[in-house]
Amino acid sequence: MSEVRVDPNLDRYAARAAALRASEIRALFSVASRPEVVSLAGGMPDTAALDLEAVGDTLQALMAEDGARALQYGGGQGDPELREQLCEVMGAEGIDARADDLVVTTGGQQALDLLAKMLCDPGDVVLAEGPTYVGALGAFQSYEARVVHVPMDAEGMDPDALATRLEELHHEGRRPKLLYTVPSHQNPAGVSLSEERRHRVLALAQQWDLLVVEDNPYGLLDFKGEHHPPLVTLDPSRVVYVGTLSKVFSPGIRVGWVMAPGALRDKVVQLKESADLCQSNLTQALAARWLREQPWRDQIDRFRERYRDRCRALTDALAAEMPHGCEWSQPTGGLFVWASVPEGIDTGELLAKALNARVAYVPGRAFFADGSGGRSLRLNFSFCGEDRLREGVQRLAGVVQEELELRAAFGTQLDEGTS
Amino acid sequence: MSEVRVDPNLDRYAARAAALRASEIRALFSVASRPEVVSLAGGMPDTAALDLEAVGDTLQALMAEDGARALQYGGGQGDPELREQLCEVMGAEGIDARADDLVVTTGGQQALDLLAKMLCDPGDVVLAEGPTYVGALGAFQSYEARVVHVPMDAEGMDPDALATRLEELHHEGRRPKLLYTVPSHQNPAGVSLSEERRHRVLALAQQWDLLVVEDNPYGLLDFKGEHHPPLVTLDPSRVVYVGTLSKVFSPGIRVGWVMAPGALRDKVVQLKESADLCQSNLTQALAARWLREQPWRDQIDRFRERYRDRCRALTDALAAEMPHGCEWSQPTGGLFVWASVPEGIDTGELLAKALNARVAYVPGRAFFADGSGGRSLRLNFSFCGEDRLREGVQRLAGVVQEELELRAAFGTQLDEGTS
């Protein structure tokens, strides 16, 4: 089972990142799955930090009190009691939600897939941050939509660049179907959209009558416990909100949700039923009981604090170890650091050497639809302990350093050989 | 929660069945969800027959021994240990499966959805029994495929009719993308494809180079514990097999699977990841432990015996109560009886009166893509106890009788009024 522990997504990422042949991906993946490899590549929360005994007791009580229902089919919109509890979770970020507007989905990913299926025809344009969540790229592209990126900086998506993109598309006669955004502690960029920019982005959305899909898995994982107002609180009629319990409780229960205005919601329910009939009643009932009976806010605090310490360990190690010319984000929450290596190194090509040095990351190109990101990489700090993070960075720094030295020695020839 | 217990799918069925307006569907559904309504409409196994204490203990042990992994992300293909166990389940029907050829899906429904997404472009033709599983219709139609039906009789799909359809399509210049079939204890028709016909159907598939999707939720639910050879055992290279634990263990865990030759399998994994990243590790681990540690074959025997008795109670009640001119199938397994009412009565139109008389069924038109089935209806016998089944049939018979008397009194006027 070690490949599951180390990095369930590496093959997917690697496939997207480097356009390698299937056999090469399998070879890389079989290496990355070895326990001696430090994987900074996944996006796994530290489920070992959960009170597993409490989860076990909750499950046993559930079986004793309501087992036949938990093991039965449920309705397409999701368990009404769970939807009430999910409104509480949204309330922790100031969202005033009604259970009736929610549809429970298999993680946030299924919400994106169903929205893509509903909204995207082949060739349609979807706007998204560049870089953006690899699973969103997968969902939109699986319906043959074209993702157009909006550049980001340390304050998140650049509204001026968004305005330019919208103008460009208008001149091309194309109306984007939606704007997909992860405004808080973005995956993979590790930055948040500032409050002032939130208003500017929504003003543009209003000006161009653009539907916004707000994907918010990390909003409650701010290291200081602060948060910017979710977009949906600023313009409820224009924003479809996607949430998940994957990062605040457990990804293994696959509980996400989408909150959408009435007509969209009904259509999502219909698509959910055609996709898989209904959500697991068992994991829904577990989530509902967990949120009702357990101190879930304290649990989120534990995650936040643990990730804050690990993020510091990672960025400190990067500062101490990485060669001159490398850069990285300074996250204030979430799970990821976004880094770049000096000009001339391609992180997709470097991955094989990194795996050989027993460290894994996700090459930056995985997070772009347009082939950019070749100098970037994503590092995860939520899963490995601090010592292991430092060990991983040391190995990564060694690989980058070696590559730089190789290039210094054989520079131009190498560049010509790979171009 | 009563709507979940009574019939989670009635709105979907009703929508398909009668092309009612949304407001009417909601009105019907709110009636059908009342506990005083005997619902013969759903397709729910009797999960109360499970050893719920054993499930609770299994879950608690799982949390204690492997909790952090069960609550974590898993791989896109599904838990390797569960896939091994699913091969055992398939072995009970004589299928020689390899875990590596399986992809775990969210029930059989997601397998159908992913196959439809992979194989069907808008306008493509899919062949399927008429009537066929309503969820398959939903999946194929959601990708804008056109379902063409092959008539059935008491021995299942008619191979002569299949040959004719294939000839007709050939003359139209259309090549069907696949043949979808539920060969054993079909939903909704309540019949099985005879062994001789299995060979004839596969010979036709070979002749026309047709991919066959075999959906087999009920194969182990034969009342005598017998089974015909699954199609996949007769032609492994041509048949994509879809299985599920929903009817032999629990639908609430949402564990199904698809077994497909290598290239198709890889593509299904990729689509699964884009649809929802991965299956729930928790419910997969529960299923794996259940199949490894619990007497699951005995549990299936318990289901089989219970459903056999209930089926007999239902068909005996139909024989005793239903007016002259009604007909129904004589199931040898599965969950459903397929019935028809005398000429002139439309089961879609009758549903409102039936709900008023506190009995629910699924109108036959729900199971056809072409608007036929107006005289048919599906009755479920797996969920209600025998007394309740008899009560439901009594109410149904009363409604049909009343309708017949009304028509005898005002016959031609009524027919003109509704045509």
Oligomer: homodimer
Provide a count of the helices of chain A. 15
Shape of chain A: globular
Main structural class of chain A: alpha/beta
Quickly give the CATH architecture of the largest domain in chain A: 3-Layer(aba) Sandwich
Q: What this model shows, in words?
A:
Two copies of one chain form a homodimer. The first copy, chain A, is α/β, with parallel strands linked by helices. The first copy, chain A, has two domains: 142 residues, Aspartate Aminotransferase, domain 1, CATH 3.90.1150; 243 residues, Aspartate Aminotransferase, domain 2. Helices cover 49% and strands 14% of the residues of chain A. Chain A has 15 helices and 14 strands. An eight-stranded mixed β-sheet of chain A has the order 2-9-8-7-6-3-4-5, with helices on both faces. In chain A, strand 6, helix 9 and strand 7 form a beta-alpha-beta unit. Chains A and B meet through helix 1, helix 4, helix 6, helix 7 and helix 11 of A and helix 1, helix 4, helix 6, helix 7 and helix 11 of B.
